[in-house]
Amino acid sequence: MAKTVFIVGHAKPPKGMSAADVFSTLSLALVVEVRHGVILEASCSLITEAGRNFISRLLVGESLLDDPDAVERAIAAGYLGAAQAAIQAAWKDVVYQFRQYKTRHIEPVSSERS
After folding, report:
1. What tens digit of pLDDT does each residue of 56-112 get?
2. pLDDT score at 13
3. How far apart are CA 15 and CA 100, in angstroms?
4. Please, which residues have CB within 8 angstroms of residue 107's CB and are 6 or more apart in sequence?
5. What is the C-alpha to C-alpha distance for residues 77 and 33, in angstroms, rounded to an integer?
6. What is the pLDDT of residue 87?
7. CB 89: neighbour CB atoms within 10 A?
8. What pLDDT score does 114 carry?
9. Which residues form the DUF3870 domain (predicted)?
């Protein structure tokens, strides 16, 4: 099984937002360590560098196997821009995709042979 995976979650950005004029969907792209679900890298299709950096700092180090609602609450508490709901929806999409991946790619249990 791969040690890391690249997962992208998508959501529709709100009308009137700069990113909506450039992208038809808001994307949240993550490099994830598979065994523990830890996010190693995070990027999103927000227009501003400050917004992209904020989301990256918020997500890197979090685990997709822990409480996803805690991250969603952190997004709500910290990201006060128009894309908040779209970022949360993209987060839910990434969590869903990763959990589906984990159920399809169960790690083999190593056994000791004498």
Report:
1. 999 999 999 999 999 999 999 999 988 999 999 999 999 999 999 999 987 655 444
2. 81
3. 30
4. 1, 35
5. 26
6. 96
7. 19
8. 40
9. 6-98
Q: Does 21 score more than 60 pLDDT?
A: no
Instruction: For tokens 């822990």, name the residue.
Output: 66
Q: Which of 72, 7, 98 shows the shortest CA–CA distance to 44?
A: 7
Strands 39-44 and 26-33: antiparallel
Q: Which amino acid is at 8?
A: V
**Structure-token match 């949360």, residue found:** 88
List, in order of start, the domains of the chain with CATH numbers: 4-104 (3.90.1010.10)
Nearest partner of 75 among 63, 86, 64, 65, judged by Cα: 86
The DSSP secondary structure of 30-88, one letter per residue, reads: EEEETTT-BEEEEEE--SSHHHHHHHHHHHTT-BTTS-HHHHHHHHHHH--STTHHHHH
